[in-house]
Amino acid sequence: MVQEVERYKKPVRILHWVHAGAFTVLFLTGLVLFIPALGFLAQDSWTRIIHRVAAAVFIIAPLIYLPLDWKSSWKGIKEAFNWGMDDVGWLKAAPAYYFLADEEAMPPQDHMNTGQKMWWLMVIIFGVVFVITGIIMWVFKTVAPAALLQWMVLFHDIAFIATGVMFFVHIYLSVIHPLMRPTKTGAWSSMARGKVSAEYAKSHHAKWYARIAKGEEKKS
């Protein structure tokens, strides 16, 4: 039997999937608005309505979760901004790891590896950009100066392109890449079941696993 360690609590996983679902809907409906050739799909503004409903879920879900576990939430937010020499080592080893499957090239990582922190940091920063620009374009579109609306559209589009690209990279590296292990024991499993194999934890998050093994840290 494969030895496993618990990585994420159920509320974290629920938030992840609700937010991921909302983002996917926002991305697809935003794509319709972003690409002129797809404009025919936006007839009767039904895609705008779906986009706004998904935006409401995107905003409300974290606001519900944060007060429920503020300590862990704040710890997770700080983790995205906590960068050091381990991250430099990860960046140097990443090409050999991801393109040549050289797992030994990667230095020991913490609860989040550098790639995950990059994605998490983008989610936080661009999430704020999405919310601010989206609210201004939605709620104040009839009263805001035209120049302001143009800037909001630009920033919204930049955030859309950056997060859209990174979203697909995130899916590939979490699910498809051969070094992510089978879905029942690796990164996908951490968000599907909350658990990963001890082998995966040791190879991908050695520093975090060492603390877990010693009982020094609880699951997130």
Structure description:
By secondary structure, the protein is an all-alpha fold. It contains 9 helices and 2 strands. It has a two-stranded antiparallel sheet. Helix 1 packs antiparallel against helix 2, helix 3 crosses helix 5 and helix 5 runs antiparallel to helix 6. The longest helix has 31 residues. The protein is elongated and about 60 Å long.
Pick out its properties.
220 residues; mainly alpha; Fumarate Reductase Cytochrome B subunit; two-stranded antiparallel sheet; 2 strands; 3% strand
Compile the SSE list and pairings.
Elements: E1 4-6, H1 10-34, H2 46-68, H3 70-81, H4 85-100, H5 114-139, H6 146-176, H7 187-192, E2 195-197, H8 198-204, H9 206-213
Antiparallel strand pairs: 1-2
Low-confidence stretches: none
Q: Give Rg in angstroms.
A: 19 Å
**Helix and strand sequence:** EHHHHHHHEHH
In the CATH classification, which architecture applies?
Answer: Up-down Bundle
Describe this structure in a few short sentences.
Helices cover 70% and strands 3% of the residues. The chain is mainly α and 220 residues long. The longest helix has 31 residues, at 146-176.
